[in-house]
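User: Can you predict the 3D structure for this chain?
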Amino acid sequence: MRLEPRFRFAVYAAFAVLFVTGAAWLAADQLKEGPSGDLWQAAAANLLMLHGGATMATLMLLGALVPLHARRAWRGKKNRLTGTVMVTVNAVLIGTAFGLYYLGSDTVRPWMSGMHIAFGFFLPLWLLVHVVRGKRGRRA
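Assistant: Here is the predicted structure, written as structure tokens:
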């Protein structure tokens, strides 16, 4: 179920921006306690804003992926395992992002943050697995 090249590029670009801004925010957030803390605090705030904006675009792309890619691949019995993991990982990221943004619980927040970070670092690796498995399936 190969995606149209421009759409595929948009999906990859959106995931790349999310990964880079998320990883950079994590670094800036750690550095804001240091000697140039004000600079890193401002950087962290801007990175989080960019991350949120990229999230909105990515949510639109994920919504388009369901009828254009996921549903067709599921019916064709193609790459179901890695596709199911992709959907699950994205659902966890969406759910934990919602929790981080809208829930003010000091008890739940560290747990949600840890899950969001772990799944965010896992996603690019699994996307690669999903794409490689899909290409192998097409050749067979």
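Residues 3 and 69 are 7 Å apart (CA to CA). The chain has one domain: 5-139.
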